[in-house]
Amino acid sequence: MSKRHSAKYKIDRAMGENLWGRSKSPVNKRSYGPGQHGQRRKSKVSDFGLQLKAKQKLKGYYGNITEKQFSSIYDEATRRKGNSSENLIGLLESRLDAIVYRAKFVPTVWAARQFVSHGHVTVDGKKVDIGSYRVKPGQVIEVKEKSRAMALVLEAQQSSERDVPDYLELGDRGFSVRYVRVPELADVPYPVKMEPNLVVEYYSS
After folding, report:
1. Alpha-carbon distance 123 to 4, whole Å?
2. Half-sphere exposure of 150 (CA within 13 A, CB side)
3. Spatial distance between the Cα atoms of 106 and 103, rounded to a whole number of angstroms
4. How far apart are alpha carbons 180 and 194 in whole angstroms?
5. Which stretch of DSSP H or E encloses residue 192?
6. What is the secondary structure of 137-176 as a DSSP string?
7. Beta-bridge mates of residue 140
8. 188 and 89 in contact (C-beta within 8 Å)?
9. Quick one: pLDDT at residue 17?
10. CA 153 to chain centroid
């Protein structure tokens, strides 16, 4: 098992939830936490503990973004007008690697970041290899012609585990997507409940 896969499953076990809704998640078989004390009866979690878990869950979902990156996204979310928790989700979903994953170009968020960094996608016809690149509504993301036959891409497109959300518009036989609009929390197809309001409380406390 690769380091990326083991890290992904470790997050699932630590959170006690199947974050990405994947059939291979170990949580489907063992709902308790990792380690020798994983099956101990859980004690009541403090407000801070709930906030921390909400942050770790959201951060982990997007490929375990670094704390520095995640806190800077939060800072921008709070600087923008409107609801900070909604802004946070909108900024996370505007990342290029997140859109590559949502569009089903690849099977996992971890693969999406690597797929982008290896230069397999373009934005409005220009190669972009930075996963954190912020896509603007109206921009078109496309899998390069020579990358379309990759097993990884074909596996993702044939998967029935998830659907492409309506804030993305597929084209060119599923190999390109237009970012129609910045989504709100209710629009994002998270397999588990995300609580960005608790994340805002965590950073503002």
Report:
1. 26
2. 18
3. 8
4. 22
5. none
6. TT-EEEE-GGGTT-HHHHHHHH--S----TTEEEEGGGTE
7. 178
8. yes
9. 73
10. 17
Provide the 10 A C-beta neighbour count for residue 152.
16
Give the side-chain half-sphere CA count within 13 A for 125.
Answer: 0
Burial of 90 (0-12, 13-18, 19+ CB in 10 A): buried
Q: What percent of the chain has pLDDT over 90?
A: 73
Q: What is the pTM of this model?
A: 0.84
Nearby residues of 9 by Cβ (< 8 Å), 6 or more positions away = 25, 26
- In sequence order, the 6+-apart residues with CB closer than 8 A to the CB of 204 are 78
Cβ-count burial of 50 within 10 angstroms (0-12 exposed, 13-18 middle, 19+ buried)?
Answer: middle
pLDDT one-digit tens code per residue, 28-62: 555 555 555 545 555 678 999 999 999 999 999 99
Largest CA distance in the chain: 54
Q: Which two tokens stand for residue 31?
A: 């709902």
Q: In Å, what is the CA distance from 49 to each residue of 37, 94, 139?
A: 18, 28, 39
Unique residue bearing structure tokens 């496309």:
142
pLDDT tens-place string over residues 102-153: 999 999 999 999 999 999 999 999 999 999 999 999 999 999 999 999 999 9
